[in-house]
């Protein structure tokens, strides 16, 4: 199975890009952050290890206490790395079993931290979605109840676009929907051509 990684910084539009491949061409997509969050609630082992790490406040009535975890990890690199060490190997195993069930020409793995987590090593091709910082912040403030300060603390924990682009096969500039869709079509055509 051909695995295409889709990555990009917070608010770059990587989920929107993955959804565009899915809606235009029916390409199956694995949205890593959503799957990670599901595993963090449904896996007994992950839950117990996260409670050991963060304390009982990590969960509220069985649901992930997102503001609490978010505040803890994005201000403490060591804690972020410890959480990643609990969650990411399980996401990788879950992803592998998901891939085994797919039958399309290729699949997409969308992840904010594709390189940081080492998941890039599983990918045949990598697409980085880019956007200028001001527009990312503008879109995130519109999408979420968040603050510039919180967005910047997350940006600091992620690779820069230059670092991502240096290790990518394709770059999508997500300035407008029409421009992004045109780049998605071109990349789809190229991937199919290379793997005929
Ligand atoms: C920390 C959590 C609880 C924050 O949830 P919340 O709904 O407040 O924010 P959201 O999920 O939208 O995260 C904001 C952004 O932070 C970034 N982010 C999330 N997890 C990480 C991480 N481990 N390292 C670096 N950046 C991350 C992403 O760009 C994400 O879109 C949540 O992101 C989470 O559970 N993360 C751990 C899962 C994970 O590692 N995901 C990354 C892909 S595998
Ligand atoms: N080309 C575009 N034009 C206008 N708005 C867009 C475009 N692409 C994405 N958006 C909007 O920008 C916001 C961020 O996009 P999206 O959620 O896809 O980003 P992301 O990179 O997956 O974010 P995160 O890292 O937080 O998971 C969303 O509200 C989305 O609808």
Automatic annotation (TrEMBL):
Question: EC number(s)?
Answer: 2.7.1.24
Pathway, per UniProt?
Cofactor biosynthesis; coenzyme A biosynthesis; CoA from (R)-pantothenate: step 5/5
Name recorded for this polypeptide: Dephospho-CoA kinase
The gene coding this protein = coaE
EC category name: transferase
Q: In Gene Ontology terms, what is one molecular function of this protein? A: dephospho-CoA kinase activity
Q: What is its main location?
A: cytoplasm
The record's PROSITE patterns line, in alphabetical order, gives: DPCK (PS51219)
Q: Which Pfam families match?
A: CoaE
Q: Name one GO cellular component term.
A: cytoplasm
Give a GO biological-process term: coenzyme A biosynthetic process
Organism name = Formosa agariphila (strain DSM 15362 / KCTC 12365 / LMG 23005 / KMM 3901 / M-2Alg 35-1)
Reaction catalysed?
3'-dephospho-CoA + ATP = ADP + CoA + H(+)
| Keywords recorded for this protein, A-Z | ATP-binding, Coenzyme A biosynthesis, Cytoplasm, Kinase, Nucleotide-binding, Transferase
Subcellular location field: Cytoplasm
Q: Where are the transmembrane segments?
A: none
CDD domains associated with the record = DPCK
What does the sequence similarity comment in the record state about its family? Belongs to the CoaE family.
Q: What does this protein do?
A: Catalyzes the phosphorylation of the 3'-hydroxyl group of dephosphocoenzyme A to form coenzyme A.
Identify the InterPro entries for this entry: Depp_CoAkinase, P-loop_NTPase
> Which residues take part in binding ATP?
11-16
PANTHER family reported in the protein's UniProt record: BIFUNCTIONAL COENZYME A SYNTHASE-RELATED, DEPHOSPHO-COA KINASE-RELATED
Determine if Lyase is one of this entry's keywords.
no
């Amino acid at each position: 199975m051909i695995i295409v990684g889709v990555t990009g910084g917070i608010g770059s539009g990587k989920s929107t890009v993955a959804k565009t491949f899915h809606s235009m061409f029916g390409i199956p997509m694995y949205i890593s952050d959503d799957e990670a969050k599901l595993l963090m609630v449904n896996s007994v082992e992950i839950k117990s290890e996260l409670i050991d790490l963060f304390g009982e406040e990590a969960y509220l009535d069985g649901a992930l206490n997102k503001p609490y975890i978010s505040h803890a990890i994005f201000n403490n690199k060591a804690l972020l790395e410890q959480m990643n060490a609990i969650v990411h190997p399980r996401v990788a195993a879950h992803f592998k079993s998901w891939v085994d069930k797919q039958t399309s020409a290729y699949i997409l793995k969308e992840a904010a931290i594709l390189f940081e987590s080492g998941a890039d090593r599983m990918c045949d091709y990598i697409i980085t979605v880019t956007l200028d910082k001001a527009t990312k912040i503008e879109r995130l403030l519109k999408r979420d109840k968040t603050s510039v300060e919180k967005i910047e603390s997350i940006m600091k924990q992620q690779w820069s676009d230059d670092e991502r682009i240096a290790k990518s096969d394709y770059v999508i500039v997500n300035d407008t929907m029409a421009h992004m869709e045109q780049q998605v079509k071109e990349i789809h055509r190229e991937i199919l051509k290379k793997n005929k």
